[in-house]
């Protein structure tokens, strides 16, 4: 049975602002449209690792397994750049641009990172990858602000 915990003293934001939740779900659906679900989950997990969002990590690692992401990829995702050929060229490009978007204070999205992604994705795909990274960062920041913990299972 799944039980959602709350952090005492923190706003139950989705209850207080249900239109925020609805808008975020609409944004999530738009970002996921036509994006490979496995790639989408890798993007969401990597950004959530960088943002220390336990709620999103719990959710998206479970979702990744349901979509067939290999356990080994999930095991080493935090060190994807050092994992050699375990990740495809497209996955590496998506993860690099996700990290750059997530850590904008470290110089933003460099021309090299952008060019690497643009070389392996169509314009539509690149737009979806960027949108997925932006969307999960928004979810991470909302959940971190109100300290949404992962559910107990």
Automatic annotation (TrEMBL):
<dbReference type="Pfam" id="PF02627">
    <property type="entry name" value="CMD"/>
</dbReference>
<dbReference type="InterPro" id="IPR003779">
    <property type="entry name" value="CMD-like"/>
</dbReference>
<dbReference type="InterPro" id="IPR004675">
    <property type="entry name" value="AhpD_core"/>
</dbReference>
<dbReference type="GO" id="GO:0051920">
    <property type="term" value="F:peroxiredoxin activity"/>
</dbReference>
<protein>
    <recommendedName>
        <fullName>Carboxymuconolactone decarboxylase-like domain-containing protein</fullName>
    </recommendedName>
</protein>
<dbReference type="InterPro" id="IPR029032">
    <property type="entry name" value="AhpD-like"/>
</dbReference>
<feature type="domain" description="Carboxymuconolactone decarboxylase-like">
    <location>
        <begin position="18"/>
        <end position="99"/>
    </location>
</feature>
């Amino acid at each position: 049975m799944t039980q959602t915990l709350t952090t005492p003293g923190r706003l139950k934001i989705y209850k207080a602002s249900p239109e925020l939740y609805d808008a975020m779900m609409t944004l999530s659906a738009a970002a996921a449209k036509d994006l490979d679900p496995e790639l989408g989950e890798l993007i969401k997990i990597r950004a959530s690792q960088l943002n220390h969002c336990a709620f999103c990590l719990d959710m998206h690692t479970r979702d990744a397994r349901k979509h067939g992401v290999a356990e080994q990829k999930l095991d080493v995702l935090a060190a994807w750049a050092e994992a050699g050929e375990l990740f495809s060229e497209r996955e590496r490009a998506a993860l690099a641009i996700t990290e750059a978007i997530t850590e904008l204070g470290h110089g933003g999205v460099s021309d090299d990172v952008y060019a690497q992604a643009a070389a392996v994705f169509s314009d539509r795909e690149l737009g979806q990858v960027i949108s997925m990274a932006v969307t999960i960062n928004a979810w991470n920041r909302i959940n971190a602000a109100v300290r949404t913990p992962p559910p107990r299972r």
